[in-house]
Amino acid sequence: xxxxxxxxxxxDGFKRGLTGEVLAxxxxxxYRLVALQILTPTREALAEHYAEHVxxxxxxxxxxxxxxxxxxxxxxxxxxxIAGFRSLAGATDPTKAAPGTIRGDFGRDWGTxxxxxxxxxxxxxxxxxxxxxxxxxxx
Length: 139
Ligand code: DAT
Ligand code: MG
What we know:
The chain is α+β, with helices and mostly antiparallel strands. Helix content is 40%, strand content 20%.
C-alpha cells in the first residue's frame, strides 16, 4: 500500500551535514519526496510531535536537543514507506543500530543528556497522518 511518512533530519544530522545523505538513501530506496522544509522547531510543535513522550524522564532533554537548531522535515511517499523508513533508520539507540542503517552508520552515542540519533520516522499510519499535520498543515 502506498503510504506517506514524516521524516525529520534532527539537529545533529543537520549540523553534521548528513541531510543530503539521508535524502539520498530515501530516494535510492525508491521513495518520493513530497514536501520538504528546513526550520528550527518550537517547543510547542515538539510537544505535539512527541505527545506520547511528555512526562517521561528523557522528554525535557529531547525537546532541548530538538529545538537547538535547524532540522529538515520531509514527507516521503512510497509502498509501505512507514515501516520501510524505520528499517532504513535502524534501532532507536545508535549504539545498537545495525551497520547499513542511518543510525548504525552515523549515530555515535546518545550524546548525553540529549538523544542524538540523526533521524525521526513516523511509527505507524496514525502517527504519520498526525505528524504530517503538525509539520505540513497545508498537505
Ligand atoms: P524512535 O525515534 O525510534 O521512534 P521513540 O519514539 O521511542 O523512538 O523516542 C523518541 C526519541 O526519544 C528517540 O529518537 C530518542 C529519545 N529516546 C527514546 N527512548 C529513550 C530513552 N530510553 N532514553 C533516552 N532517550 C530516549
Ligand atoms: Mg517514535
